[in-house]
Predict the structure.
Amino acid sequence: SQQGEEDPQALSIQEGENATMNCSYKTSINNLQWYRQNSGRGLVHLILIRSNEREKHSGRLRVTLDTSKKSSSLLITASRAADTASYFCATIYNQGGKLIFGQGTELSVKP
Amino acid sequence: EAGVTQFPSHSVIEKGQTVTLRCDPISGHDNLYWYRRVMGKEIKFLLHFVKESKQDESGMPNNRFLAERTGGTYSTLKVQPAELEDSGVYFCASSLRDYQTRSTDTQYFGPGTRLTVL
């Protein structure tokens, strides 16, 4: 993989539960981003966390970043069926350059 | 403000045929990127334009792929001749160019073109 590993590869939970997805990366970064892809649709930018930040919140999303371990986690609280999607972390290879994506986590939220 | 648009949304062609994908970035975005997701695998970078210039085309798989961005607005990605392994979803993204920090950060993605080569 260009990026590293994301785990789990697939996650199935009940509506209302929390979902946690993890991502590891290989290179030093300026920031790390999380994206969501709903089936048959494009990628939606969820949240960006910079390398000097350790935690960031956006609505029901909470992202953490541990640069010493080169890892990040995305927590979705109080999940909904509409959260069912593929979730990807991505880093920028260099400023202004390409995004390097993780392999993604397929999240299924059952009503 | 309109987002990134891509055309067509789906394309089914036979091996050996030619297909041209189009991407219209957000107005005013200098950066335009092409990515591909094959068979449910990870999303991989293909190339990056800054205005009409190719900044990085290291991800282009082979010379059957040709990308252009004449005039620095919309971009096309032509696959000629198409092979079975070219099947996948092709995403286009655009972002602003921050002239102060040279950091473009958020890339906004289009809905993708699903290409099926039979």
Q: What stands out?
A: Chain B has a mean pLDDT of 90. The radius of gyration of chain B is 14 Å. Chain B touches chain A at residues 4, 6, 31, 33, 35, 41-45, 48, 50, 55-56, 58-59, 91, 93, 97, 101-112, 114 (CB under 8 Å).
